[in-house]
Give the backbone structure.
Amino acid sequence: MTQEDGDLDSLVRKRIRALRVAQGWSLEELATRARLSQSSLSRIENGQRRLALDQLVTLARALDTTLDQLVETAAGNVVISPMIDGTHGLMRWPIKGEPGMSVVRQRMTEPPPDNPSRMRAHPGREWLVVLSGTAILMLGHRRFRIETNQAAEFPTMMPHAIGAESGPCEILGIFDRDARRGHQRDGGDCDAQGTCE
């Protein structure tokens, strides 16, 4: 076994224990969920028993995670710089662990469009939090006022638009893969009126 293999082995064992403790589970409880004996689980956590792939799959499932997450190594570059679109006051960060998802920070100064035909609808979900100011979310025929530190989450199949209420506001939004694609097909993340998710 190489040094790198030994480090990964130790990391996986620590993760198993940390996830068990975070759930508030005893050795006995996780062993029962994973259909292992309590002594086998204890030896796995303490490095006294070899890690077998079938046991790792079972433990990952019992801990409500994936095998990939259980064995992934630390990424070399954990700091991500944003892609900046100064024209629209937009900053975007991709989420490495979830390809297709991204985080967007947007400064808006214009209200949402009055014309319902300017609202977007597409597959996906969006989540946003207002960092400063007050935002207006138009969702179908409903109008929601979202103040600083309040968040909204909605399915994007509902026609929607967002803008500022009486002054600038900043939002931070998270797009799932489908929502991101929907906005790309619509011609980008923002329109000329500052409507952006």
Notes: Confidence is low (pLDDT under 50) at residues 186-197. The radius of gyration is 23 Å. The CA atoms of residues 72 and 140 lie 42 Å apart. Strands lie at 83-85, 90-94, 102-108, 125-132, 134-139, 142-147, 151-155, 160-164, 169-175.
